[in-house]
Amino acid sequence: MTEYATMHTGHTGMEKFGYFDKLNGLDHLPHWDGEPCRSIQASEGSFFPPRDLTKKDTVYIYDKDLCRTLPLVYREPVEKDGISADLYTLAEDAYGPPNENNSCFDHDHYKKYYGLQNISPCQYGAPVYISNPHFYQSDPQLLDAVEGLQPDPEQHKTYFKIQPKLGVPLEGQVRVQLNLLVEKAPNVMATKDFRDFVFPIMWLEEVSGIPCSCKRPKLCDLHYEATIYLEFFIFCFLVLSVT
Q1: Which keywords annotate this record (predicted)?
Q2: Beta-carbon neighbour count of residue 223 at 10 Å?
Q3: In tens digits, what is the pLDDT along the chain, a chain of 243 residues?
């Protein structure tokens, strides 16, 4: 679905440069009840408040499919193709444990794990949860419950390289894993023998700062395709739940 947004241009100050002012006519995200989960004070990925001017070490990016903003924390100065940049990575506690910045994403019906967050309110009520790919920086219990995953920071971390004077991302990758909360249902024949665990469905990568025509063109389509697959999966889940 097309989204309509108004943005802060920096005319009255650079603290919110590149951030949403309104999204689809709203000044908040409707899926969540409390702050800061409802906040739309984030970039869509094209511009960020320049750190040289704001002196702030955290910027935010909005992800439509996750129905939330993600905090990116400054780590160190780097270079990209000879241009100076600031390296930002996803905050370690972005998906948990519950704290003042993310507890409003949780609900009382599931066990809270480090590095796992509920997004069911924006996925038609399906028990969908997000984490880093391969449960990188997540509770070891999540990784121990499945086979075949090997967390690797170089492959699975979310990061951005942002030019500090302009606030323009020179390179960035948002990496996220979609998971399904599986619970034993003794009255449902097909699932009565299932154990309780968090089942990783897929992980995807969104690329920023690199033109699709220049490098890794296949990744440019991955976000759209993964979104379609997720919506189809959720539809199947809802049909099975009803039947």
Answers
A1: Cell membrane, Glycoprotein, Membrane, Transmembrane, Transmembrane helix
A2: 18
A3: 578 899 999 988 899 999 999 999 999 999 888 888 999 999 999 999 999 999 999 999 999 888 899 999 999 999 999 999 999 999 999 998 777 778 888 776 666 789 999 888 888 888 899 999 999 999 999 999 999 999 999 999 999 999 999 999 999 999 999 999 888 877 888 777 888 899 999 999 988 764 544 444 443 444 444 444 455 454 444 444 444
Of the candidates 53, 12, 80, the residue with the CA atom closest to the CA atom of residue 166: 53
Look up tokens 């509770």; give the residue. Answer: 139
Q: What is the value of pTM for the model shown?
A: 0.82
Pairing of strands 117-118, 83-90: unpaired
Could you say which DSSP state residue 39 is in? -
Q: Which amino acid is at 217?
A: P
- How far is Cα 241 from Cα 157, in angstroms, rounded to an integer? 34
Q: Which tokens go with 75? A: 């780590």
Of the candidates 227, 142, 167, the one whose C-alpha atom is nearest the C-alpha of residue 46 is 167
Candidates 144, 111, 146, 145; CA nearest to 129 is 111
